[in-house]
């Protein structure tokens, strides 16, 4: 009877030791999962910041494009106005030359 009890206690001790080892292993796994979870959260945060930066750059590019288009239109308008002024000046110069020539040859 005593031997049986010692054997049972020995088995119980082994079972408790095994359970303790398994608990330590589970705790280690839980810690690894928590560390990986933190890494995932940090990665998601970094991706979110990256996407936010991309959106900001996209808005800046659209603004620059709009300004460039407005500048192109303005330059085109100015070119047309300069051409018109140049044409008027040429007419005035031609008229002045003609009038001066007429005065000289009279």
Can you walk me through this structure?
- The longest helix is centred in the middle third of the chain and has 103 residues, at 2-104.
- The chain has 106 residues and is mostly helical.
- It is built from 1 helix and no strands.
- The protein starts with a helix and ends with a helix.
- The relative contact order is 0.03.
- It has one domain.
- The model has no long low-confidence stretch (mean pLDDT 94).
Identify the notable features of this structure and list them briefly.
106 residues; mainly alpha; 1 helix
Structural domain count: 1
Radius of gyration: 45 Å
Largest sheet: none
What sort of overall outline do the alpha carbons produce when their principal axes are compared? rod-shaped
> Helix coverage percent of residues?
over 70%
Total count of strands: 0
* Strand composition percent: under 5%
Arithmetic mean of pLDDT? 94
Structural class assignment: mainly alpha
Q: Termini, distance in Å? A: 154 Å
What is the string of helix and strand elements? Answer: H
Tally of helical runs: 1
Q: Could you list the spans in which at least 5 consecutive residues all have pLDDT below 50?
A: none
């Amino acid at each position: 009877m005593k031997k049986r009890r010692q054997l049972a206690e020995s088995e119980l001790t082994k079972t408790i030791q095994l359970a303790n080892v398994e608990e330590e292993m589970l705790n280690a796994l839980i810690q690894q999962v928590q560390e990986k979870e933190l890494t995932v959260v940090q990665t998601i945060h970094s991706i979110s910041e990256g996407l936010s930066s991309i959106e900001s750059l996209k808005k800046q590019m659209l603004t620059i494009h709009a300004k460039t288009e407005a500048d192109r239109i303005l330059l085109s308008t100015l070119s047309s106005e300069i051409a018109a002024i140049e044409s008027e000046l040429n007419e005035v110069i031609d008229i002045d030359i003609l009038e001066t020539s007429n005065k000289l040859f009279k």
